[in-house]
Amino acid sequence: MGRNQMGTNAAIFRLSPDIFLLILNYLALHDKFLLSHTCKVFRHSTYHDWDNEISRLSFSDRVGFWAGLAYTLPDYWACPKCCKLHIINTSDVPATLNRQQLVPCQADLSRGIGTEMYSIPQYHIQFALKLSRLGKHQQYLGALMKPYTDTRISLLNPLTDSYAAEPKIIKKQFILREEWNISNNTSTTLPLFPENGTFHMPVCPHLGLTSSGLASSRMRKKWDAERLQLRHKMTELEELTLFKEMTLIEDGLAFAFRFPGNWIYNSCLRCTTDIGINVSTDKRKVTVRAWHDFGVEGSPIDTNWSVHVADPLQAWATRGSYMDYTHGSVRTLWMEGISDGTK
Ligand SMILES: [Zn+2]
Ligand SMILES: [Zn+2]
């Protein structure tokens, strides 16, 4: 192997070939690939026809391979659509409009978190976690983690609504807090959720207002529940349970209007998202908050990420599986992160 020519006394070179090969067998393919690029000795001992090896992997293992490489390379992200690495583009941040121009393959663009003005694709989350771990590209990290606020005058004057998003890395997990506010700052009595309004609140793929008015949002979900009931041959009770789960936000808002001044908390049953709803004591302002936990570093098809995005090809047929997590824990983690930051 030419160890002496390499002039190294590293312990790994003093291992017997059998032991060394045994260790190599435990390495993931991306680790072998990276090892093969460190020196001649490792290139020879880990030699593979990489193209052939990668093409034989299943789709999820192939995405895992590129995600494994991206984990150590600060300038690249793993694209699940192209199954390769794309180079960092520091002008691509959550508030970027027309991201299509920056990411020609449009990977992940159809599925993301946020509103049309602010959206976080999976590779932003992976960059943020990685750059904070490696201490590289700190300016870009700052841009990715920058809080965002958008205040709009509603088309139904004089209502105003606003959207705010704030990402944080807490205990190596990427947490995003979103907040929607709707208010009527005049003395007129106006419903905050008029049926003819244009307000939408995409809290997560499983919850949220699909229509401006609470009644029409419920109606649409009733249709969705009936369609799913037929497709999956559910009992009436199962359909009712599904409908209750789909309308947690509508029910939460109705409850909050009955108890103004109090925070009403709940959680999505299918993704790690806690929610809080508050109606002001004068009933002129509604605040809805969502805390999403996107988990730790990982592949774009890991559950951490995929439970948070609706697959447009699947949404009509299934709502995804239930997620086992402690409800309220994401909000608690956020609070801990805030108190840590103030210390
Ligand atoms: Zn791509
Ligand atoms: Zn959800």
Commentary on this structure:
InterPro entries: F-box-like_dom_sf (IPR036047). This is F-box domain-containing protein. With 343 residues, the chain is an alpha+beta fold. The protein has 2 domains: 1-56, no CATH class; 146-342, no CATH class. Helix content is 37%, strand content 18%. The strands form 3 sheets. The protein has a 6-stranded antiparallel sheet. The chain has a two-stranded antiparallel ribbon with strand order 1-2. A two-stranded antiparallel sheet has the order 3-4. Helix 3 (29-36) packs across helix 6 and helix 9 runs antiparallel to helix 10. The longest helix has 19 residues, at 214-232. It is elongated, with a radius of gyration of 24 Å. The protein starts with a helix and ends with a helix. Residues 79, 81-82, 86, 105, 107 line the site of one zinc ion (ZN).
Low-confidence stretches: 1-6
Q: What is the H-and-E element order? A: HHHHHHEEEEHHEEEHHHEEEHH
Provide the residue-averaged pLDDT: 85
What is the strand arrangement across the widest sheet? 5-6-7-10-9-8
- Report the helical percentage: 25-40%
* Number of self-contained structural domains: 2
How far the N terminus sits from the C terminus, by CA atoms, comes to 54 Å
Largest sheet: 6 strands, antiparallel
Q: What ligands are attached or bound here?
A: zinc ion
Estimated radius of gyration: 24 Å
Query: How does the helix and strand content classify structurally?
Result: alpha+beta
Give the tally of β-strands. 10
Shape: elongated
Put simply, the count of helices is: 13
Question: Which band does the percent of strand residues land in?
Answer: 15-25%
